[in-house]
């Protein structure tokens, strides 16, 4: 169980769903261990969050446990979408813990947001990668099948074709150096899905990820971006993905802390709505 996630499902405002898919990782595998590691490294945090004045144990968080992954990614995503849809129908926010970034496709389909916001080192706008249309490198493209707009924060890698696709009016790319000054600007009634690929952070802060990319965000910049989006009160789904077991816990502890930062800020925004 995620530490502090102590309420029953029917009383939850946020539901943690582990999604240990590790099917298309193209460099360093191990995301199947992500949900367990994120839970493990969250155990050392204080319950109280000074920035919001809230206690995590008061934020009505439940833990669904892991949705065990299997080889057929398409079938798995359909099942995971159903789990997340049940959370949405219960008027709660699905909080997915990956697993490779492909699991975000299920969360986005369940939430059906107007805007997809993603912290990511990569554009993930490929039509396929290594012949796989459900690769972790295709997530933003799939999200745009559902959302009207995508915002990629911290991107610093992509193919020429991806950057050409990103020049469209429905995609905003914010490079790492511009993220500290970026502020979310959504339509008043827009719904948002927020995804955190831990490789958005520079590998100096989070080396335990599948495709580390230098010159990224600091952990503090990741936190500030997550809090800014959560504070809008528009986020209907959240995930943190691409944590693996190839470090001493740096990626997992960052992912866990960003998850908690999201919950604290989103809970406060809901209280003040």
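-> sequence recovered:
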């Amino acid at each position: 169980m995620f530490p502090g996630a102590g309420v029953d499902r029917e009383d939850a405002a946020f539901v943690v769903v582990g999604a240990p898919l590790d099917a298309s990782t193209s460099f360093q595998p191990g995301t199947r261990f992500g949900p367990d590691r994120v839970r493990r490294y969250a155990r050392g945090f204080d319950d109280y969050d000074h920035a919001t004045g809230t206690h995590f144990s008061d934020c009505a968080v439940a833990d669904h446990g892991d949705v065990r992954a299997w080889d057929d990614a398409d079938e798995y995503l359909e099942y995971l979408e159903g789990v997340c849809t049940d959370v949405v129908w219960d008027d709660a926010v699905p909080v997915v813990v990956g697993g490779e970034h492909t699991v975000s496709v299920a969360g986005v389909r369940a939430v059906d947001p107007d805007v997809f916001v993603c912290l990511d080192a990569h554009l993930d706008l490929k039509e396929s990668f290594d012949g796989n249309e459900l690769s972790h490198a295709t997530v933003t493209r799939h999200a745009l099948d559902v959302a009207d707009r995508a915002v990629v924060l911290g991107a610093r890698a992509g193919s020429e074709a991806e950057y050409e696709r990103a020049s469209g009016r429905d995609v905003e790319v914010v490079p790492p150096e511009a993220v500290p000054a970026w502020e979310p600007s959504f339509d008043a009634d827009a719904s948002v899905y927020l995804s955190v690929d831990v490789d958005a952070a520079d590998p100096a802060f989070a080396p335990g990820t599948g495709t580390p990319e230098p010159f990224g965000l600091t952990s503090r910049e990741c936190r500030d971006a997550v809090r800014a989006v959560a504070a809008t009160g528009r986020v209907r789904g959240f995930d943190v993905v691409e944590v693996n077991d190839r470090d001493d816990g740096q990626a997992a502890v960052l992912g866990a802390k960003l998850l908690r930062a999201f919950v604290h800020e989103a809970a406060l925004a809901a209280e003040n709505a």
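The radius of gyration is 17 Å.
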